[in-house]
């Protein structure tokens, strides 16, 4: 995702998700092993999809949700795989260390909340008979939801906070490694940087809707029509006449209010 490529933990997270997919997808033996682990602890094992460049939003969401659902099973299997002497032990240890890193897990759960908002916005743009005047309000609503995540955790981040114990360095049943700082949203650099970057990207991406000619379509948005009858009688005529002036003769432009 272009908006947050500069955030180190996001890049590491994406590399980890892709790596875990290849680690299991490329070995029937490892797939059998992780299924056996899931059966032992009586857990349903979700399929881990690849993160593709095309349809990045959909594949990233599915990949992270699968990783979140399988987290305990994957950590358990990788813990054993990392102790082996084969050529894949190093990769298993690297993925394991990433999954046991508090900042990495926090980033994953925050990203799931962000992707959920973006996914809903994406679905909105797939609506049939979508009007231009409907775009700006929907984009603004999505931006407000994203900004709210800075101070009010979304459903996935709430789940993270419930499982995260920085003092005991635990995330549910997973023993964490490295620094485990308490989460304070008022000063959390990663959270605020990720959200601000996404918001800035969306604002720039849809800035065209606040420019001519698209902004002229707002005259068709009845929610913005003036309540005063006299103002309403000529509302939008000047704007449309000026925009389409090249289509009218001088005489016709003079009659725009008739």
Poorly predicted ranges: none
Q: Number of helical segments?
A: 11
Give the overall silhouette: elongated
Fraction of residues in helices? Answer: 55-70%
Q: Kindly estimate the percentage of residues that lie in beta strands according to DSSP.
A: under 5%
- Evaluate the radius of gyration: 25 Å
> Which whole number gives the mean pLDDT?
85
- Order of strands across the widest beta sheet? 1-2-3
Biggest beta sheet attributes:
3 strands, antiparallel
Counting DSSP E segments of at least 2 residues, the number of strands comes to 3
Class by helix and strand content?
mainly alpha
H and E order? HHHHHHHEEEHHHH
Question: End-to-end distance, in Å?
Answer: 51 Å
Explain how this protein is built.
The chain has helices spanning 8-25, 28-40, 56-81, 89-99, 102-124, 132-148, 155-163, 189-205, 229-234, 237-243, 250-254; strands at 164-165, 170-171, 174-175. The relative contact order is 0.10. With 258 residues, it is mostly helical. α1 packs across α5 and α2 crosses α3. The mean pLDDT is 85.
Short description:
59% of the residues lie in helices and 2% in strands. With 258 residues, the chain is mostly helical.
Summarize this structure as a short list of keywords or feature phrases.
258 residues; mainly alpha; 3-stranded antiparallel sheet; 2% strand
């Amino acid at each position: 995702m272009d908006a947050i490529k500069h955030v180190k933990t996001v890049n590491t997270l994406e590399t980890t998700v892709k790596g875990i997919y290849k680690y299991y997808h490329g070995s029937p033996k490892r797939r059998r092993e992780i299924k056996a682990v899931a059966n032992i602890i009586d857990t349903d094992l979700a399929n881990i999809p690849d993160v593709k460049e095309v349809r990045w939003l959909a594949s990233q969401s599915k990949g992270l949700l699968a990783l979140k659902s399988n987290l305990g099973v994957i950590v358990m299997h990788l813990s054993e795989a990392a102790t082996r002497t084969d050529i894949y032990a190093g990769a298993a240890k690297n993925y394991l260390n990433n999954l046991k890193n508090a900042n990495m897990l926090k980033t994953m759960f925050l990203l799931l909340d962000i992707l959920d908002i973006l996914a809903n916005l994406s679905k909105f743009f797939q609506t049939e008979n979508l009007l231009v005047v409907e775009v700006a309000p929907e984009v603004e609503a999505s931006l407000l939801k994203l900004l709210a995540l800075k101070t009010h955790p979304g459903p996935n981040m709430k789940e993270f906070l419930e499982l995260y114990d920085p003092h005991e360095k635990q995330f549910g049943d997973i023993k964490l490694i490295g620094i485990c700082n308490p989460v304070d949203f008022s000063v959390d650099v990663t959270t605020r940087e990720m959200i601000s970057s996404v918001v800035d990207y969306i604002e720039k991406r849809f800035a065209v809707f606040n420019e001519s000619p698209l902004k002229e379509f707002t005259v068709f948005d009845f929610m913005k029509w003036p309540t005063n009858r006299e103002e309403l009688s000529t509302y939008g005529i000047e704007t449309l006449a000026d925009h389409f002036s090249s289509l009218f003769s001088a005489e016709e432009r003079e009659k725009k209010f008739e």
